[in-house]
Specification:
Length: 84
């Protein structure tokens, strides 16, 4: 096998230099804006509220509530009686 050409070595060397330059860049930390902070707080409150609601009822109670809700819905796809 032949040794790699000088051009290939040069390309690899340039890539290595570029990679080292990228590493040397300072890390910038961006703080959330007041709107983002408010959104996070709102999400936390809603999440905890939903968890409390789910925990407060048993599976059986949730199923009964769902069945009641379904029974109160109109029968949209039923064929209405027409005629006598």
């Amino acid at each position: 096998m032949s040794a790699p050409s000088g051009k290939l070595r040069l390309k690899k060397h340039k890539k290595a230099k570029l990679f080292q330059k990228e590493k040397a860049r300072p890390v910038i930390s961006i703080e959330p804006t007041p709107a983002e902070k408010a959104f996070e707080e709102y999400q936390k409150k809603n999440r905890s509220k939903r968890v409390e609601e789910r925990v407060s009822k048993t599976h059986k109670e949730r199923v009964e509530e769902y069945n009641k809700k379904l029974s109160e819905l109109t029968e949209h796809f039923d064929i209405p009686r027409v005629g006598s």
